Amino acid sequence: MQDSLLPASGDRYRRVVAQNRRGIPREERLESVVAAARSRFETLGYKGTSIGDVARDVGVNTGSIHWYFPSKDDLFAAVLRRIVEESRAAVEADLASHGDPMGALTRFLASEERHRGLHVDAHDRLAESSAVAEVHDELHAWLDGLLLAVVRPRLGGSGHDGLIADTAHVVFEGLLGSTTRRDRPFEDIVQFLVDMLVAAASRTARTPRATAPLRRGRRAKGD
Predict the structure, then answer these.
(1) 93-102: per-residue pLDDT in tens?
(2) What is the CATH T-level fold of the domain 73-205, as seen in this structure?
(3) Which is nearest to 2 in space by CA: 61, 42, 57?
(4) What are residue 3's DSSP bridge partners?
(5) Which DSSP symbol is given to 3?
(6) How far apart are CA 2 and CA 186, in angstroms?
């Protein structure tokens, strides 16, 4: 008989609580669910994974999974968040050791190739799941900040952070989900992106803003 994560009522509730106290703690059970789901999503993708498959892998019933993750998208978001947390921790450790934002960004993008399928699946679910969209947006906001740490020292405060971040978002979306074979290493791609953004921002900063034209029929001063 499969174990259950769900609370019950009356005597059955007390029996389940007693079993859980003697068995696996709740946090460990949740960890096993996320780990099993991650294995499925990484191997078979979003479409190839079902809540039932994950439940069987963990040894619980499907309702138990839904108690903590109401939908497949919620479970998928939990897996994505775990991956993002691991990636951020690795980059922050990299920065602490080397103090090189450019190197950290490059190594992160290269390491994420193994999760390319998950990034594609996440992009496909953005309009359908607020949970997936939240994790996706957090990742890209963090990536934008990492890129700005690379670009800002070369710009000297041009005031174009928003434009740079928006442009980088589009580029990162393509890099993380691209299935196109690349002939160049990530170092070259990221360096080109940084050089392009710095050059464009610098050119924009030097270009004077056009003044609004005089209204038709307006008389010049002194006429």
Answers:
(1) 988 888 888 8
(2) Tetracycline Repressor; domain 2 (1.10.357)
(3) 61
(4) 60
(5) B
(6) 47
**Identity (one letter) of the amino acid at 63?**
G
What tokens does 20 get?
Answer: 């859980």
Backbone angles phi, psi at 10, to 5 degrees: 60, -140
Q: Give the closest residue to 195 by CA, choosing from 151, 160, 132, 164.
A: 151
Q: Which CATH fold topology does 19-70 show?
A: Arc Repressor Mutant, subunit A (1.10.10)
The pair of structure tokens assigned to 190 is 């990221």
Q: Which two tokens stand for residue 149?
A: 């740490």
Tell me which of 85 and 221 has the higher pLDDT.
85
- Name the token pair of 177: 């989900």
Averaged over 158-178, what is the pLDDT?
74
For the chain, what are the domain ranges?
A: 19-70, 73-205
pLDDT digits (tens, 9 = 90+) for 28-64: 888 999 999 999 999 999 999 999 999 999 999 999 9
Q: How far, in Å, CA of 73 to CA of 55, rounded?
A: 15
